[in-house]
UniProtKB/TrEMBL annotation:
Protein's organism: Spirosoma radiotolerans
UniProt protein name: DUF4440 domain-containing protein
Signal sequence range: 1-19
SUPFAM superfamilies xref list: NTF2-like (SSF54427)
Residue span(s) of domain DUF4440: 30-135
Length: 144
């Protein structure tokens, strides 16, 4: 009986995790939220799974980085988010194969040892690649 109960619990957790991944791959808003959560959780594997191979990020200081550098920064501890809260997000979908998610991100952390605590407005451009939503561009602009 314990074996059956343990198996059911394991199946429940596995199904929940799979459903969350599937939702992110099928819904651009869920993908955007999963991206910000992965940054907060310092989960470089999830970040890598959500972005396109040619991702470009324009940071709030105007610097441009590619997806590989973002993943390295998250996995290597150079990019640390202590707190992060997405608000006022709006997602617009175009022709069922591209989308733009905009909103505000209040975050605190550090990049290569330099602390920040600010609000930025963001644009996340999402496109379907081989039928799967991927983040292709992210831009952060300091909020005034």
């Amino acid at each position: 009986m314990n074996y059956v109960f343990s198996s059911l619990i394991a199946l429940l957790f596995t199904t929940t995790a799979f459903a969350q991944q599937a939702a992110a791959s099928q819904d651009p808003t869920a993908l955007g939220h999963a991206f910000f959560k992965a940054l907060l959780d310092e989960d470089s594997k999830t970040v890598e799974s959500l972005i396109s191979s040619d991702l470009e990020v324009i940071s709030f200081d105007g610097q441009s980085i590619d997806g590989d550098l973002l993943v390295q920064g998250v996995s290597g501890g150079a990019f640390i988010i202590e707190t992060g809260d997405v608000s006022d997000e709006v997602t617009r979908v175009y022709n069922n194969d591209s989308a733009v998610m905009t909103g505000t991100w209040k975050s605190k952390g550090n990049i290569q040892g330099q602390a920040f605590d600010n609000s930025v407005t963001f644009s996340v451009v999402i496109a379907k690649q081989a039928g799967i939503w991927k983040i292709v561009n992210v831009q952060f602009t300091p909020a005034r």
